[in-house]
Amino acid sequence: MQAGGTEMLRWFSAPATETQITHGQRLWLYVFSVVIMVLLVAPTLIVIPMSFSDSQYLEFPPETWSLRWYRHYFGSAEWMQATRTSFKVAVLTMLVATPVGVLAAYGLHASRVRLVQAAFLFLLTPMMVPVVLVAIGAFYAYARLNMLYSLTGLVLAHTVLALPLVVIVTGSALKGFDTSLEVAARSLGAPRWKAFLTITLPQIRFAVVTSALLAFLTSFDEVVVAMFLSGGDNPLLTRNMFNALRDQIDPTIAAISTLMILLTTLMMLLVQIFGQPRKPADKG
Amino acid sequence: MANIAALPITVANVTKTYGRVHALDNVSLHVKSGEFLTLLGPSGSGKSTLLMVLAGFTRPDSGSLKFGDHEVIRTPPHLRDVGMTFQSYALFPHMTVAGNVGYPLRLRKVPRTEIADRVDRALQTVQLDGFGDRRIDQLSGGQRQRVAVARAIVFEPRILLMDEPLSALDKKLRDQMQIELRRLHEKLGMTTVYVTHDQREALTMSDRIAVVNHGRIMQLATPLDLYEHPANRFVADFIGESTFLPVTRRGDRVVYGDMALRHSRPAPDAAGLLLMMRPERIALTTAPVEGANTFSAVAREVVYQGDSYLVQAVLADGTEITLRRPMSGAALAAMPAPGAPITLSVAPEDAVIIDAGEV
Amino acid sequence: MQAKGENAAGLRRDDRMERLRLFGLGSPAMLLILVVLVIPVGWLFYVSFIGADGNFSLENYRRMINSRSYSRIFVTTFQVSFLTTALCIVIGYPLAYFMAQLPPRLASLCMLAVLLPFWTSLLVRTYAWLVLLQRQGLVNEWGMALGLWDAPLKLVHNMTGTLVGMVHIMLPFLILPTYGAMKAIGPDYLKAAANLGATPRRAFWTVFFPLSTPGLFAGALMVFILCLGFFVTPAVLGGGRVILVSMQIVSNIELFVNWGAASALGVVLLVLTVAILWIASRFLRLDHIAGGGH
């Protein structure tokens, strides 16, 4: 206790920065930062215990625990249909946006045309245009083309929203990629496409997998486009959730939220496991 | 690996501009079959651009490039069949050593058993037997360099291009690898074009050296010719140490002030002339030497450098001359004091008259 | 000026072909954006100039200027965007500063805390705040239990709730580029400043802070732009009392089926966004925003 105390004191007066401000003088910063980080994380996590409450009203901590709201969710044909559609659309969006975006990022990276800068900006427009505009624009166009509430229409719209993320993430990985590797492969007899597939792609796979995950989540989490373009036979989960939220606080949403948090965490872990470049840590 | 039939390289009138900068200015060059030729120059001189043109990664504006009798200037890099090593080695980190070395063979659809065989032989050639299963990040710099070489020669290309392959190694290893690469070249016999900015490396390894500057070849000669008879001030400056005196042509003689110079080779046919001397070949004497060029000067600075000492001397007209004398017990005693008058002498063979023209 | 000489024409053709082929790799993506986004939005632009009688008219824009409710919507939108951005700066800058000085292991742990909300669904986070801030919510419950206030405070379905939710959602967008810029400042700068006689406070304000501003500006710009077009969080947490432009656009379509009015609002929103980006791009490089944080 005594030793711990003096150690504490020493830490307080130890310099924390190059300019010799001590930890003690900056205590306010540490407290502030920790509080903010707790506030960043806690609201999301607090939903989890609440979803296991038996009560009609959300309470924390729950007085009685139950799986009532999960049963309600899995038992509801409406929720199940929306969940299926959301998964379908998200997976398809991922499958379209990832290759299309990676190709674009590579093309812009490798091509030294003067237009590249402009093309890059163009690819970022879906991020800059307010999503409401994208939604009502597509809504009007789809209505004319008879594509409203269609899977294709949803996938196309979500792909457009996901493309900037894929291009940015893959593009910055390509910027950090040692281009001499691809040059070497070509000098050894690989045509450009083969050099890309066998050398470049394995090197940037973490970024590609991350882009794919981002594309999936973009689609899975997206609300505004879902509100306008989904419905009928193809309602999206987020659309139903949003509508439910506008009416009343339905604890089923807490159960769905918990499942969504679980899903994202799971996907993050998968990326970490399969996408991470092999670390040279296990030197033999 | 047996001797590989080599191919000569003929570069003719190759020009490459980036905007208004001439990276390559109408370059022509012939590399003989089996020759070890070095492109030597400062960074930005165009030497790497020229190598990239040979490899096919830089497309010139115009010109011709022949491997043997085949025009290849428009052939894409993967069809040129030249081996190449890179400054950063460019080993594929997601493959083992054997994976790297076998890569060009797999591209060429060589049967699997033969691949293993040839990979082993290539690794043997670079003295890395048994390293096939290692990962790249388990190798030292020197070992990586060897893997890069093995990968570049395993498919038996008839031309080998090397882009500053030793610049990432420390000095000791570099010296050792220089000799090893030289030996490898003698054994394999492929036409080799080697890029470096290190003049000593170039002198050590090359059959011939092309000194490159501002996208042009300043001089193409053997190491000996280059050092003994540089064609112009740039080459003299870039290779070894040199010190210059402005001289003029008077009739059929070259004079410094009123003194006619004794030089063993004829002066070049140029408007401006310089007398080029190597500092280590300028002697310090007490009296004028018979048959040599003699100058009176004042020692301004004398710097002790261990194996030698350096004297900065000023001639009567204010021109500075640097000379270097080897150190010994006797030389130490004879070292002039700053401010002391000294006499310098240069033998006619060591007085080289060069073109003073623009560099 | 075209190069002449041996093979010049062929080489030029090869070069053009290669560039085109590589550039062409981007065409599927660009085509998609063109068809799904640019053309429909362009069409909205056209619709915004069509009046109720089907002829060209500026009535949709005139309504925006004349109607008090419309001008209030724009004022609210800017108010919310400014406040959110300011709060994000005040909260996010010290946090980024804190993280930038932690040893790598701790820093990556904190990064996880910042990124977790980034990865979890927007709707989930908004929902969480709705639950926490409601009348019988946890915040009110604990606040009263601790004796901080007596009666339940009205924390949601108003400006307070909107701001809390939006700051929570926007914070990572500010922290990531700011943190990136701070990490790029070498410790030697501060040592040099101290060596030259600057007090720690002075060294911070004259050396560290100016060097970190590109990241901070990039993040703030990103937050502001995102706020301008934000819909979900204010719609849920504002409870109809905080009406932003995007919400008005939605109700114009959903409730009134007035495409002209919705389009005109959308056009103004887009023009404002682009104008702000354009002005900002004259002072800082936009690719910093895009590149920041990844």
TrEMBL record, chain A:
It is a multi-pass membrane protein. InterPro entries: MetI-like, MetI-like_sf. Keywords: Cell inner membrane, Cell membrane, Membrane, Transmembrane, Transmembrane helix, Transport. It comes from the Bacteria. This is Putative spermidine/putrescine transport system permease protein. Belongs to the binding-protein-dependent transport system permease family. It is found in: Cell inner membrane; Cell membrane. GO terms for cellular component: plasma membrane. Residues 83-271 form the ABC transmembrane type-1 domain. The chain crosses the membrane at residues 27-52, 89-108, 120-142, 148-174, 195-217, 253-274. One of its GO terms (biological process) is transmembrane transport.
TrEMBL record, chain B:
It catalyses: ATP + H2O + polyamine-[polyamine-binding protein]Side 1 = ADP + phosphate + polyamineSide 2 + [polyamine-binding protein]Side 1. Residues 9-239 form the ABC transporter domain. Keywords: ATP-binding, Cell membrane, Membrane, Nucleotide-binding, Translocase, Transport. InterPro entries: AAA+_ATPase, ABC_SmlMolc_Importer, ABC_transporter-like_ATP-bd, ABC_transporter-like_CS, Mo/tungstate-bd_C_term_dom, P-loop_NTPase, PotA-like, Transp-assoc_OB_typ2. Its EC number is 7.6.2.11. The keyword ATP-binding applies. It comes from the Bacteria. This is Spermidine/putrescine import ATP-binding protein PotA. It comes from Gemmobacter megaterium. The lineage of its organism: Bacteria, Pseudomonadati, Pseudomonadota, Alphaproteobacteria, Rhodobacterales. The gene is potA.
From TrEMBL, chain C:
Belongs to the binding-protein-dependent transport system permease family. CysTW subfamily. GO terms for cellular component: plasma membrane. Residues 74-280 form the ABC transmembrane type-1 domain. PROSITE patterns: ABC_TM1. It is found in: Cell membrane. Coiled coil: none annotated. This is Putative spermidine/putrescine transport system permease protein/spermidine/putrescine transport system permease protein. It is a multi-pass membrane protein. The keyword Membrane applies. InterPro entries: MetI-like (IPR000515), MetI-like_sf (IPR035906). SUPFAM superfamilies: MetI-like (SSF161098). It holds the Pfam family BPD_transp_1. Keywords: Cell membrane, Membrane, Transmembrane, Transmembrane helix, Transport. CDD domains: TM_PBP2 (cd06261). The chain crosses the membrane at residues 22-50, 70-97, 109-132, 163-182, 203-236, 256-280. The keyword Cell membrane applies. GO terms for biological process: transmembrane transport. It comes from Gemmobacter megaterium.
